């Protein structure tokens, strides 16, 4: 694997120019680049990369700061969500479109800004939070690369007691096959704050590209965060998305991912339950097709007592696709009365698809309730037969089963509008 | 389910030639010294009168052992504490480090009382006549079965007297290159059993072996090969103990099972090594068409046990099963599990693993289930349950499941819990002391698996668990 060129750019309107970074940020970048060059490439011998097809991990020739061509710009204009929601749209790490917060939210002290802007305007806030978390579930080298290169992305800060009425929209696009993108999402919720974030990763170009995003999510005491990620990279994209959530006392977070597209997609999700009463729900629905590989690693870290985590990852596998789920529930000796659940369900629809499941538990406290389950199976032939008998063609019946299988995860979401939007989208892509 | 031996005398665990079979002739006059080198292997070959092919086999295996790194990238770092240069690899009776029963510490004697081995048996278990009695104990069975063509001998005798069967399968299920410890065993193995059951014969009584380590800083490397010919059935039971020493003792066995079409093999282990033993065992069976292999495994002793009985389901409709109980007390790590490799259509496998962690004990389940492409109608079911007794107890679960294709199904479930306070309260209300209530609750947790053990073993198991539970309450 060639090292990607290190281009740190700021690119309003798609034309790149070197980014101006504060000194502390520059320092982090330089140190990260040294780490990146020093750290070894992932190896098959590493348990955290077990079953991964490392030949698919490729960032050859991809560079950050690729200019956005005019037709793509026009397309993206169309994608930029109409409506009132505060939104930022990036392509190839350049900020193209933005819509700010409502005046009421601004008055209450909410901050929602591109990272580079926040770094100057909210320097103290960013300096104390940006790049403070490590996900560390195997992709340390990639995480360092991200730190060395990331300038695109957004910071959301919600002060104590404020509930953000509207969800915040963030989308990151790639327009060229040789583009690389390093989105960074920083969310800081103060005590009893509440926010919803919608995140979208997608491509306008037909194939290729490299993405390595990091999410740092700080959820303060009693605060609540809903984060929805919709990933739909173009064929041939190799992507990493590394997320860490810190949950303080009585904080709660629900993260949901809908995964489609890409050639190799690795997600690392770490939930750190650091305060008593913290609660984390981790949901994922994956539709794997062609020769796609989805490599999902999760870590439910119970540090404080009386914490609860609940994970449900479901995958439907077509063609010669592969999925890997490696989850770990870790319960510290102090984390008594932990309630942790982890469930991985795989539906295989073809001869050549392959599902790998590594559900894990490491329990060091005794007064706990920890369970995990993992299944790999096919559509029940009798149920299919029932459909066929009633004149439903095989393909349509199978589609129904897949839809039912995956929308089961959507059912866990509270927002009805989101639920139906996701279902519609899934239905469309199954057709 | 195994039938019970009828005569009281055969209930006792048989003694096996754990220190090598040949010393009937040579009066236990062999000691290969400490450390491992080509000379050690040559010494063992000379002592045992190994044929030339075996000498080469052992040396090839030694090279693999020396080359392979310890698997500490996934396994316990405790492995690094084994000093391979301080271990005695071959020690035949007569060289038993000058230990007599008077020298045996009280704790060792207690171990035997706990095992319920009678006074008379204690004499030969630690003494030089141990081999003697075990031979006699199963010579009864031999007499009954020999005419029918059953072979039940030590590995050395097996390879000398029945090379045509032995060589066909020896090292085929577990080649020396399988892992570092299988290579070590292949280089220096001695003792263990060789069993052949002719076609169609159902051996009604279990064949038994009892393994004991007696000398300090010793490494025991028994090698067992069981071949059940078409349509035959056999049950093999092994038990083991070792005295407690300050220095580490190493036990690294290799057990290969071959169940030819329609055959059934049941392999029962009650492992109760003393807490200084590193128990690093490779066990694997190969099941042909319609054959069945069951591993029934109970791990109570040792300091670190790493044992993942495996079944390779090679023939259509083959069945594999692992039932496992692990009990980890202070200072112990029971790293056990199971592997099911499906290689033919309509093969099914079942894994039920239960573990109990007491005090600062740690128990781990590591599993692997693989169903490759284009197989039809394969099924696996895995259940692992862990019970944690004290706040310092620890448990881990690391299963790995790979399934390809859409005509098979796998399900895995695991849970971790503690003893229900309500259950204990209920029993205490009815006048049971807390410790008894806890023991009862623990026994209830594993009861459905204990029932799979032959009667005399399950009674012993319950007693062992009660003993382990002693003082763990509160």
What is the C-alpha radius of gyration of chain B, as a whole number of Å? 22 Å
Per DSSP E runs of 2 or more residues, the count of β-strands of chain A stands at 22
Distance between the termini of chain B: 37 Å
**Biggest sheet statistics of chain B:** 12 strands, mixed
Helix residue percentage of chain A: 10-25%
Helix count of chain B equals: 12
Q: Largest interface, and how many residues on either side?
A: A-B, 40 and 36 residues
- Find the structural class of chain B using helix and strand composition: alpha/beta
Mean pLDDT across residues of chain A:
90
Q: Strand share of the residues of chain A? A: 35-45%
Structure classification of chain A: alpha/beta
**Unreliable stretches of chain B, pLDDT < 50, 5 or more residues?**
1-28, 94-105, 107-113, 115-140
Assess the beta-strand content of chain B as a share of residues. Answer: 25-35%
Number of helices of chain A: 9
Report the radius of gyration of chain A as a whole number of Å. 21 Å
Helix content of chain B: 25-40%
Query: What is the number of independent domains of chain B?
Result: 2
What are the segments of chain A in which pLDDT stays under 50 over at least 5 consecutive residues? 1-5, 8-12
Broad shape of chain A:
globular
Query: Distance between the terminal alpha carbons of chain A, to the nearest Å?
Result: 36 Å
